[in-house]
Write a structure and sequence with these properties.
mainly alpha; 1 helix; about 95% helix
Length: about 35
């Protein structure tokens, strides 16, 4: 079913956004120092 196929894609996207946020925080810390 398409719904089941869409679930893992959303999970990967959320994980990617989380990683991006983490990287942004690290970059901000480096810039602030």
């Amino acid at each position: 079913p398409p719904n089941l196929r869409h679930s893992p894609k959303v999970k990967i996207r959320i994980r990617n956004i989380r990683m991006w946020r983490f990287t942004l925080i690290i970059v901000l810390c480096i810039v602030l120092e």
